[in-house]
Amino acid sequence: MKPIYLDNNATTPIWPEVLEAMLPFLSHQACYGNPSSLHWAGREVNAAVERARQQVADLIHATADEVVFTACGTEGDNFALLGTMEALASKGNHLITTAVEHPAVLDTCRYFEQRGGRVTYLPVNGQGLIDLGELEAAITPQTVLISVMWANNETGTLFPIKEIGAIARRYGVRFHCDAVQALGKVPIDVERARVDLLVLSGHKIGAPKGVGALYIRRGTDMVPYLHGGHQERGLRAGTHNVPGIVGFGAACSLIGPRLEQEMQRLQRLRDRLEQGIRLGVAEVGLNGHPQQRLANTLNLSFPFVEGEGLLLALDMLGIAASSGSACTSGSEGASHVLRAMGASDMALNSSVRFSLGYQTTEEEIDYVLEQLPPLVERLRQMSPFSSPQDEDLSVFNCPVVECTIDDH
Ligand SMILES: Cc1ncc(COP(=O)(O)O)c(C=O)c1O
């Protein structure tokens, strides 16, 4: 059996059509100019960058001049949050976000707090959703920005973006949305969602690592992120990553016509995986919203099994998945997302995320379903927690190794 990759929320393989589109821009024979140069070599490359900008804009129903290329989603989140708060500092210094954002947002918020800003971190319920009444109640005259992700990277839970956008509009507050996990998995329309700032990343959708984009609604105040050149209308200086940008554009143009059909296929496969695991393994818990969730994402807890141990055992069978949390709840490594959702120590320690991709096949899912139940059974037999009464994880057997937190 070929290795099976079920970690597509971490990153995706580059699609063959994307690679093909990129190759001329990696060649020494053609398409090597600097897109800022005015001569023939620059002009043809500049045209390719602008074509890619249009392709990205088309997928999110924006106009090309609202798309700024970045190096990654993390940069986009930093840029959107800090650039807005600085641009609108005279209005106020309050930002509202959620407790389950990616660290690209949460750590930027903490940095902003260290510099004197005020941040409200909205709590979530057991399915990972915020209360819109609480969001509204948190808005003050000093509130400048609301930042809520479109889809959570660990659980796949989808936030009600349109409703949040409507609230932001009603109060005259900017709305930033981290759509890194949503792109290519749900239809995105920046007009309907009423977002002012939207963050995207190429490597989650079959484009290479090292390229992303920030959508900035026309007329939105923004302070430049990088200084030192006139690129990206002076908002983000630096010579463009041309092959990456061309690949990102190609991936966006491939997704458009395939999105709906592919998501139906992935949901069927994801549900097959979930149902098969539930049939083969007792006491499995779902982390995230059962319906309002990305079609490709399945985050499960396997009580009485140490999640990291299960991942290593799956890896030995050639199956790549990931954990949302790895060590005891008291440690730094436990998933902040599951913790915010009120997950028990047992759930925190035994969670595994399977994220399917455009390349995932039914045979692969069936192979996982063959291998996983006996594996869980074996690990449970080895676990000191052999019975459901042993819920006390203070003695849970978490290895004394650096634990990994999955932030993808
Ligand atoms: C929700 C979310 N936001 C931001 C990022 C960061 O994106 P990048 O890896 O392109 O920096 C990720 C990546 O895992 C993500 O899942």
List unreliable stretches of 5+ residues: 325-331, 389-408
Tally the helices. Answer: 12
- What fraction, in percent, of the residue positions are helical? 25-40%
Kindly identify the CATH topology of the largest domain. Aspartate Aminotransferase, domain 2
CATH architecture of the largest domain: 3-Layer(aba) Sandwich
Strand arrangement in the largest pleated sheet:
2-8-7-6-5-3-4
The overall number of domains is: 2
Write a structural description.
The chain has 408 residues and is an alpha/beta fold. The protein contains 12 helices and 12 strands. Strand 3 (94-98), helix 4 (103-114) and strand 4 (118-122) form a beta-alpha-beta unit. Residues 325-331 and 389-408 have low confidence and may be disordered. The protein binds pyridoxal-5'-phosphate. Pyridoxal-5'-phosphate binds next to helix 3.
Provide the descriptors you would attach to this structure in a database record:
binds pyridoxal-5'-phosphate, 408 residues, Aspartate Aminotransferase, domain 2, three-stranded antiparallel sheet, 12 helices, seven-stranded mixed sheet, alpha/beta, Aspartate Aminotransferase, domain 1, disordered C terminus
Topology of this protein?
Blueprint (H helix, E strand, L loop, with lengths): L3 E2 L10 H7 L17 H20 L7 E4 L2 H15 L6 E5 L4 H12 L3 E5 L9 H7 L4 E5 L13 H11 L2 E5 L11 H4 L3 E5 L10 E5 L25 H39 L4 E2 L10 E5 L5 H10 L2 E2 L15 H5 L4 H5 L1 E5 L6 H21 L26
Parallel strand pairs: 1-11, 3-4, 3-5, 5-6, 6-7
Antiparallel strand pairs: 2-8, 7-8, 9-10, 10-12
Helix pairs in contact: 1-8, 2-8, 3-4, 8-12, 9-12
